[in-house]
Amino acid sequence: MPSSPLLRAAVLVLEGAKPLDVGIPAQVFTTRASMPYEVRVCGAEPGLVTGGDGLSYHVAHGLEALQWADIVFVPGYRFPDREDPPAAVVAALLAAHARGARLAAISTGAFALAATGLLDGKRATTHWHYTRALAERHPLVRVDGNVLFVDEGSVLTSAGAASGIDLCLHVLRGDLGVAASNHAARRLVAAPYRSGGQAQYVPRSVPEPLGERFAGTREWALRRLGEPLSLAALARHASVSPRTFSRRFVEDTGYTPMEWVTRARVDLARELLERSDHGVERIAAEVGLGTGANLRLHFQRVLGTTPSDYRRTFTKGS
User: How far apart are CA 273 and CA 266, in angstroms?
Assistant: First the structure.
């Protein structure tokens, strides 16, 4: 992993804050040798904050932490649809954003960001139970209740608590690269990536754990990215027809099977670019994309950059 300057993350705990929503960014970004972040947990003022679900939090920092942070996480809180956060909190969020900090909401933390006006005219999401309330309370926000998270650049929102992990891993990929994100996912025993466009839930008559039906096939494919991987081969491993596999795979991941394979290959290429000095042609062959030209094509389509520019970004200072 390349050496990086310390990145500063604040977790803003509001009254009624949900334990998982607070714990996810605090754990993912906590300072350790493999993670160049410093985290400060803060509230409207230092001291005891009454949380949700029977827990309370003793925070060491007040709103001054938002002026220190590079990214501010706003966990979900109780009854967000009834009243806006205190005016001082809204003002501090606006000031942090104006200074250049990113604001990232987990679950109903989106209501706090919406109260600032920074989501007006932008796409945003929140927990599916609150999407209608968010749209009604903040009609200028383009609420999308069918996604796990939305990245609008300087403001990010996510759905329920588990999707906060997806959002945090997405932030890590952007800040530190795919190797760091995959390392964090392994530590959390979480999926390395799920599509932000994946549905929050898919109604079905027989309940099945979302994302688990083809987990074994996805793991099998990840170990064979350098080999030919066709839809027929994936479906055969999953013991279903290609048509059934395609339909259910999209429900589980938000991607078609071959889109998922391509993105997995691009992610492996990213990791090799970050951690090795192999040339583009060799990397393309190793990840199953064939030629350097093909790798460049998919890199540009998926990431909007070139392999060489990506390598420069994540090897400078290493």
Answer: 10
Predicted TM-score (pTM) above 0.85: no
Mean pLDDT, each 10-residue run in order, the chain (318 residues): 68 93 89 81 94 88 96 94 94 97 96 97 93 95 89 93 86 85 75 50 36 79 92 94 92 85 91 90 95 93 87 67
Write the CA distances from 307 to 226, 237, 284, 285, 300, integer angstroms.
18, 32, 10, 14, 8
